[in-house]
Write a structure and sequence with these properties.
With about 375 residues, the protein is an alpha/beta fold. About 40% of the residues lie in helices and about 15% in strands. Bound molecules: pyridoxal-5'-phosphate.
Length: about 375
């Protein structure tokens, strides 16, 4: 019988994720599967927690990968912290802020939002003003808004939240492993990420971390956490302590892959990894500007790992992306929502952020657009 996998091509992943994967991470996926209660596997779990703490810059004990993609991380943070009618503030300037709003609303929270134009950042002063008008239990924001390429000022917003009793919840799906995420010093109480962006792993796991203050809120809830699978108080018993308690069958080989990808980051060094993202972003922007392609976002708010470029006049969005995929074996992302048909999103995430990839996408665009 024909095996479809024989025809899977190697595509240079320069979209909004998944990103390119290092061969050693593919090797990790193919190691022999151990049992989820196996003592050696438990050592690996402990090491994953330690490496995640390094990448997230946190001492939080409750730092684990949840089984599921980034959205499962989002659900984990909200479902554990939110109870019905809790006052929540969501800061929105793109698709993923909107998704947070939807998740919190489904849990019956009393959700307020502050909205900012797509392609521009959340303004901390507006947040401070809103915080003076009402006491919130949680304030949530997306650090790297993948739908627009905007970096939100998470540290500055945190300074205002710190003056209140609110918990600070941050989406670091696209930022983690590509730019600094200083969980503890920025006063973040809950964060989640995904493996398929700057961690350069296949999609399938969602690293999360909760501060002791957040854990306290979780352990003193009035009502039971309404989701069994994502219940942090139960997951803790599998991920911590001398005796481990089975919760669900961990995705063993994906966890090997995450371990290997975190090891690569730790070996390269966080500062060096951030610098590599920044240098390649700079090279990409200079190259794009040389061929007359403009960036959507103002320089100070640009994400190095997600470059939103304005589709040049006369270029057909789908045709250009189609030719990149077909003739050059390169994937880039389309615009979403109000930016559909207006921008392309060029990812430089994790292992994708390399000079040869920047050169390849620039020369392909040059040829396709006749520049
Ligand atoms: C900022 C952000 N948050 C959340 C998600 C959701 O992650 P996933 O698609 O892995 O469920 C994404 C995915 O692109 C994202 O970019």
């Amino acid at each position: 019988m024909n095996n479809m996998l024989d025809d899977v091509e190697e595509i240079l992943l320069m979209g909004p994720g998944p990103s390119c994967i290092h061969d050693s991470v593919y090797d990790a996926l193919s190691r022999k599967t151990l049992g989820h209660m196996d003592p050696y596997f438990i050592h690996i779990m402990d090491e994953i927690k330690r490496l995640l703490q390094i990448v997230m810059q946190t001492q939080n004990k409750m730092t684990i990968p949840v089984s599921g993609t980034g959205s499962a991380g989002m659900e984990t943070c909200f479902v554990n912290l939110v109870e019905r009618n809790d006052p929540i503030l969501i800061l929105i300037n793109g698709v993923f802020g909107q998704r947070m709003q939807e998740v919190a609303t489904r849990l019956g929270a009393d959700v307020d939002s502050l909205e900012f134009e797509w392609g521009t950042p959340v303004l901390p002063d507006k947040v401070a003003e809103k915080l003076r008008s009402k006491d919130y239990k949680i304030v949530a924001v997306v650090h790297a808004e993948t739908s627009t390429g905007v970096k939100n000022p998470v540290e500055k917003i945190g300074e205002f939240i710190r003056e209140t009793n609110a918990l600070y919840l941050v989406d670091t799906v696209t930022s983690l492993g590509g730019i600094e995420v200083a969980t503890d010093s920025w006063g973040i109480d809950a964060l989640y990420s995904g493996t398929q962006k700057c961690l350069s792993c296949p999609p399938g796991l969602a690293p999360v971390s909760f501060s002791d203050r957040a854990l306290d809120v979780i352990l003193n809830r009035q009502n039971k956490i309404p989701n069994w699978y994502l219940d942090v108080s139960m997951l803790t018993k599998y991920w911590e302590g001398q005796t481990r308690v089975y919760h669900h069958t961990a995705p063993i080989n994906m966890l090997y892959a995450l371990y290997q990808s975190l090891l690569l980051i730790a070996e390269e060094g966080l500062t060096e990894v951030f610098q590599r993202h920044y240098e390649n972003h700079k090279k990409l922007v200079e190259g794009l500007e040389r061929i007359g392609i403009q960036m959507l976002v103002a320089p100070e708010y640009r994400l190095p790992m997600l470059n939103s470029v304005v589709i040049p006049e006369g270029a057909d969005d789908a045709e250009v992306r189609g030719r990149l995929r077909q003739d050059y074996k390169i994937e880039i992302g389309p615009g979403l929502g109000p930016l559909a048909g207006k921008i392309w999103r060029i990812g430089l995430m994790g292992h994708t952020a390399r000079e040869e990839n920047v050169d390849r996408v620039l020369s392909a665009l040059k040829e396709i657009l006749n520049r």
